[in-house]
Amino acid sequence: MARIRIKRCGPGRPRTRPARVVADKGYSSRKIRAYLRSRGIACTIPERVDQISGRQRRGESLCRLDRTVYRRRNVVERCFNRLKQNKALATRYDKRARHYQAMITLACLRLWLPT
Asked: Considering the chain, what percentage of its residues have pLDDT values greater than 90?
């Protein structure tokens, strides 16, 4: 999360705080939610069943989920699935991060350019 950089349209440093984070139930821990809350970042993360039952047992309010925002998450998931068609990305053969990043760039170019 600390390495996020969002480029600006004009001049200036990139933003390090996104407006919203959308994730699946795997990222629904208290630690992640507290970190996002402390930085003032809105989040759309569904809660796991055990978290919902614990909140109900303690009498706390449930987290509201913006379903229209969460539905747009499938675009990113489909992109990852298309990228994983490249064997080198799916199995992560590259040892160095910059080589892996270069492979991701090449795979994105292959998706973007017409065949």
From this structure: 2
